[in-house]
Design brief:
By secondary structure, the protein is mainly α. The protein has 9 helices and 2 strands. The longest helix has 31 residues. The chain starts with 9 loop residues before the first strand and ends with a helix. The N terminus is likely disordered.
């Protein structure tokens, strides 16, 4: 049972999604839609910076640091995609490039952490030799993550880009004369509706390995976006939707 009908109000003959005011019943922040974008982007990108530092410098203390880094980077990308039409193209490119680089570097380290902590004990007589190899691989896999941290932390480069992004976003908000509801319907909700549509389409595919992976990714992207929009989507069963997406992702 997929609770997306509240946002997928109806479809045209071409299959495009129509989102109406009555469907979304938006509660907009007093200032502008950009205020929501500032809040979500600041929180998510600051979280990336914090977990990148811990994953790079304190990874031997707790393997959850890398996991939290991956989660925060995905949330950052989700926020970036959701509010992309409000943001300067150059900054979107910069953050997208570096967040994807973080995810790639953290992916290998996380895979090895899982192997060492969860699979090693099941390896029987091969445990000793595999432990030596996997731990050596884990140390080697840490280098790209450390390199990224040093590059982005040098002269507070990452933080300065966050501040620049927020300044430009606030500047756009001050100059905007459009009704916030219009901006949200025309520039934010189509992005969100597209994520809903991707999940619906993925649910209709065959349950093979590739299709299940694509479904899981689509569900994850929708869940992150729905969580970001919780402050303004009131009375739209968004918490229930997030919970449903968590359950579907687990299955």
């Amino acid at each position: 049972d997929f609770n997306a009908r509240w946002i997928l109000n109806n479809q045209t003959a071409e299959g495009s999604i129509v989102v109406e005011h009555e469907t979304v019943a938006m509660k907009i922040f007093e200032t502008s839609v950009e205020e929501l974008a500032c809040s979500v982007l600041t929180d998510s990108l600051t979280s990336v910076r914090r977990w990148l530092k811990r994953a790079a410098r304190e990874w031997t203390e707790d393997d959850e640091f890398v996991h939290q880094l991956r989660v925060s980077a995905r949330r950052g990308l989700s926020a970036l995609n959701l509010f992309e039409t409000l943001l300067p193209e150059s900054e979107v490119r910069w953050f997208r490039k570096n967040l994807k680089a973080i995810l790639q570097a953290a992916g290998r380290t996380r895979d090895l952490d899982v192997l060492i902590t969860m699979q090693l004990r099941r390896c029987g007589k091969a445990r000793k030799i595999l432990a030596k190899q996997w731990r050596a691989d884990r140390v080697a896999a840490q280098e790209p993550l450390v390199t990224l941290y040093r590059k982005l932390n040098h002269k507070d480069r990452f933080e300065k880009h966050v501040q620049l992004l927020i300044r430009k976003l606030k500047s756009v908000a001050e100059d905007r004369e459009d009704d916030p509801r219009f901006v949200c319907d025309k520039r934010i909700l189509p992005q969100f509706a597209g994520l809903c549509h991707a999940v619906v389409n993925a649910l209709g595919n065959e349950a093979d390995v590739r299709s299940l992976h694509e479904l899981r990714i689509a569900v994850k992207r929708l869940r992150y976006a729905a969580t970001s929009l919780l402050p303004v989507l009131q009375g739209q069963k968004v918490p229930e939707m997030v919970k449903s997406m968590e359950g579907l992702q687990t299955k």
